[in-house]
Amino acid sequence: MSSWRGLMKLSSVTGAGLAGWFAGKHYERHVVGVEHQPRRSSFLSAANVKSMPGLPIFGSVSAASPLPPTDSNTVDVDHNNMGSKLSTTGSRLSQIMKYGFPGLDQVRSYDDFVLSYDRRNRVAHWVFEHLSQERLNTNKNIDRSKCEFVPDPSIHPFFRSDNRDYKRSGYDRGHLAAAGNHKMDQKHIQQTFYLTNMAPQVGVGFNRDSWNRLEIYVRKLTKIYKDVYVCTGPLYLPKLEPDGKKYVKYEVIGANHVAVPTHFYKIVVGETSDAKLEMEAFVMPNAPIDNDAPLENFRVPPESVERAAGLLFFDKVARNKLHKINGKKVS
Prior knowledge:
Layout: H1 2-9, H2 82-96, E1 106-109, E2 114-118, E3 123-131, H3 163-166, E4 172-175, H4 186-191, E5 198-201, H5 203-207, H6 210-220, E6 227-235, E7 239-240, E8 246-247, E9 252-253, E10 258-259, E11 263-271, E12 277-285, H7 302-309, E13 324-325, E14 328-329
Parallel strand pairs: 12-13
Antiparallel strand pairs: 1-2, 2-3, 3-6, 4-5, 6-11, 7-8, 9-10, 11-12, 13-14
């Protein structure tokens, strides 16, 4: 029955009249809203932990009215009419969305990293990387000085950030996928300089110091693990104001109103040679940080980042299948 319910909740979007859009492959988290299920049950099977951990799920599209019943107590599903009901719902959705969706979160797959771009804030939702000792071997022909910060031409001009946005803003163009992680090929490192991979970061004390220390630390993990998976992104966290209320406030810079995140996160999963998985989660404020502050000070429960970011990280691996989280063994 659960497989049928999963099928019935699958988004059914047909191509007719949608100007090339298709969204049927976008799921809600394990096709049932996480707010209605315990955390553990929403994870997919972790039987094959050798496959690359899943990307964060964001911006899924599903039918507003679920196809027959989602109530676990209801069992009278007419399987014979399943196809016609899926077809009817798909047809109705095509009719409603005849002239296209306002937007689906834009996932960009570059040669050596993947990101989801937030067109409203002009900063990525998340950037995903895979590191190993082999992939971090520096190609002697790589020349970072030849790399230039450029807008990503694949992003609609309405939603791009521009170098002029950063000029005299007081912020660095801070890499999310670190340039130092992509030195196998000149094209790889150049792609990290697309402004889609940038976020406004405080320079002295953060981007050039403590954030850089974190990036170096992650690269060093490849000496411990055979594979390291890294997800990096911005956060916009609320702050308690004098009136006793909490507000989410952040600066925007330039003519394109590029959002300045209040914090940044990195979620890291290392895979050992015997297929054990260990996770670390870090959050740093976008502010000057004492360079003597240990990186351990910035470890946080992964769930706190997920709630703040609105993302679910490494969803193909159940947390109770992890060997360690933030250096502590998982019971």
